[in-house]
Amino acid sequence: MTLGLFTGAMAVLTAILASCTTPTPQPAPQAEISKDSLVKRGEYLVQVMGCDDCHSPKQMGPQGPEVIADRRLSGYQAGRPLPKTDPASIQNGWVMFNSDLTASYGPWGVSFAANLTPDSTGIGVWTEEQFKKALREGKFKGLDNNRPLLPPMPWANFRHLTDVDIKAIYSYLHSIRPVKNVVPAWIPPATK
Known about the structure:
The protein has helices spanning 2-21, 35-48, 51-55, 87-91, 128-137, 155-158, 163-173, and strands at 58-61, 64-67, 96-97, 103-106, 109-112. The protein contains 7 helices and 5 strands. 36% of the residues lie in helices and 9% in strands. It is of the alpha+beta class.
């Protein structure tokens, strides 16, 4: 009986050890996504994520604010004056936007929506890694030693995008018409 128990225990131990040395199945490699598919996916993501809401200048139309097509995704327009603001409103907890939502004013100062077009004044000179760092880590221009991205940019939500989705958005933004527009620098709260 003892020999049978010993033999049974050895068989169980052998099975356990064998299962420990069996290689873990690896996920199947992802199929290569075509450039056209990436661009189409990126276009879809830019639309559903609301990038036009803040990054596209608008004009009032019969249905309300409408994106100005030839300035789409070019950010706050250089040379455009800021509307008058009341600093007391900010001290009372308010955040304000300009009429086309491309500038916002809050406790952080005044932030301006960036130019997302592939022009050199936009993201045209950014690498895909910089773009990923901006969306994942909230770094201005995707550079390590830069300031954080400011409200209302929801980068904390975007950091959950997959690598493929970020690549798709980057590919789409690099496929659109470049618009030359140097967006003003952030205005810290003390200087407003």
